[in-house]
Amino acid sequence: MTNYWRANKRRATVVWVLVVGAITWVASPAWAQDKAGEPSPLPGCEDQVRSGGPKGKQERFFPMPLATVKQAAIEAVQSLEFEVKKNTDNSLEARKARHMGVFVGSGGEKVRLEFREAEQDGQKGTMVTGETKKNMVGIAGQKTWTSAVLAQTNCVLQKGAQK
Amino acid sequence: MTYGYSLAALFLAVSLWAQRSVVDVTGPKLPPREKKCEIQFFDEKEPDTPHETIGHIRVYISRDKLGGGSATPVERAKPEFRKRACQMGADAVVLIQKTVSNSGEFQTLYVKGEAIHFTK
Q1: What is the pTM of this model?
Q2: Dist CA A149 CA A151 (whole Å)
């Protein structure tokens, strides 16, 4: 009987160590990345795009016409594995593809972007307001993508400007 | 019991690696070529040979980082590009955008390519 409890305790400890190790590994970007063999990023872009950043609405000004900025935003959301669900003259709504994971999985977040013509420091352009909405299904694995989408839009625009 | 283990292994394999692609046809509709046709790849720069753009191919390869291993190289996306380009009747693919994104335990490699047809 004592042996049975001892074996069970040992098994529980092994499982606990494995779970904690796996969670720490995912949470630590330095461990999870292996930069060898990765593609080179777009000019002006981050090496790797990560979710996260401030919650709630975010605004960013781009000194480009509305149509150009909106097209860049579509390319940006597509590159982050979002599918455009609604596309009007002044707004976009896209949903991230879901992945079933070993622990929590990911995806299902909705990003909504609104575009309006604006002027900043005497320069005409487009103001983009973005927000990420999470839903109840799989919320544990859902992240805020607004910052990543706006940064990616910027690098798509920079690439376009270099052509 | 064996059935249960096989099912669990299959689930694990599917959840560790996932690949999908999307095709947007924007140019002329051409007849498909044979399944494993020869496709040339160009990195960012279009070839000088006269050509027309048939459409765009977007390939997504996601991996669960818990499965270990290194990041997905672009080479891994090429068979999917080849398959889709042959279906579209293209001669070559110009790889125009690459993005690596991270979310929780998943890392996704996105590669966008322009399917082209040589006109001469």
Answers
A1: 0.74
A2: 6
